[in-house]
Design goal:
alpha+beta, 10 strands, 31% helix
Length: 303
């Protein structure tokens, strides 16, 4: 602490005190530390590195590799499996801008402006519209709520971490016409790129995601000359260390009535053995109703 407490990062003026604010405020943290910019992972490495290695189960010398070639995916979810829907998302951050906990107001608006222009270049299945949260028409807001697309303010962790400053300015949602491809702008990460559809066609969802990520990256590069933050050791940079690496969370909503009847704690224990993460279908902190669970991969780094 004494060695790092006075360091202020170059990109967004972030400090270690800001990074650990959630763990200081709450005693129920899953991870408890956030990065305010790419610099945070370097400047505060003595704190971040051991946590990252423990969470992701990697060695101190590990380097990240990522392969988004959808042609390599063999097989799919079997017919008849009680899967309601499949969703795969990644986070991405654009170099030169802070991450959500530390991003300045000017940087946040800059990311949104960049993305509002970039999405106009999408063609084919990915083509759609961008909806800024600031000044949003009530009819548009209600439709996004009904579609379960809208992210909202009020999460106490995100608030304490500094991610809801200047709400709702600089934030918005893009989706294609079929509502199977989404981008959240300036929520927990600068960009959350999401592919989803009903049923269990994981390969189809991943193929759309891979094409979508490339479309976003290409359009951002053309618009600004900037690339995604990609670290040789930790992969794609995110505000939360649990998302480092691919930044990918692949999930299904699946009915598990037997496990619900058996004991939810035993389901959690079994998921831990398989390196999976069970959530309620209302999201990470939204609770659980019935016997439909959101099951996803736990690790995103080193695989």
């Amino acid at each position: 602490w004494d060695a790092l407490k006075n360091i202020t990062t170059k990109t967004s003026g972030f400090t270690l005190a800001k990074a650990i604010a959630c763990a200081v405020q709450f005693n129920n943290q899953h991870c408890g530390i956030y990065a305010g910019d790419w610099d945070s992972y370097k400047d505060f490495a003595p704190v971040f590195d051991p946590l990252i290695q423990e969470y992701h189960g990697i060695s101190a010398t590990a380097v990240h590799s990522s392969d988004m070639d959808f042609n390599k995916i063999q097989g799919n979810i079997v017919d008849g499996a009680p899967v309601h829907s499949t969703r795969i998302r990644v986070g991405r951050s654009i170099d030169g801008f802070g991450l959500s906990p530390g991003i300045t107001k000017e940087q946040r608006v800059g990311v949104e402006k960049l993305m509002a222009n970039a999405v106009k270049t999408f063609g084919g299945e990915l083509a759609g519209s961008y909806y800024p949260l600031a000044g949003m028409q009530e009819s548009v807001r209600q439709q996004l709520v009904d579609d379960h697309f809208l992210f909202v303010s009020g999460d106490r962790n995100l608030t304490v971490a500094g991610m809801e400053r200047d709400w709702p300015e600089g934030r918005g949602i893009f989706h294609n016409e079929k509502k199977t491809f989404l981008i959240w702008v300036n929520e927990e990460d600068q960009l959350r790129i999401i592919s989803m559809q009903m049923g269990g066609d994981v390969r189809g969802v991943f193929e759309r995601l891979a094409k979508g990520i490339k479309a976003v990256g290409d359009s951002v590069k053309k618009e600004s000359g900037k690339d995604f933050c990609l670290d040789a050791k930790y992969g794609y940079i995110h505000s939360c260390p649990t998302n480092l690496g691919t930044g990918m969370r692949a999930s299904v909503h699946v009915d598990l009535p037997g496990w619900t009847k058996h004991a939810v704690e035993k389901l959690k224990a079994r998921c831990e053995e398989l390196h999976l993460q069970p959530r309620g279908t209302r999201g990470e902190s939204g609770g659980q109703t019935g016997f439909t669970y959101d099951i996803s991969n736990k690790h995103r780094l080193g695989y």
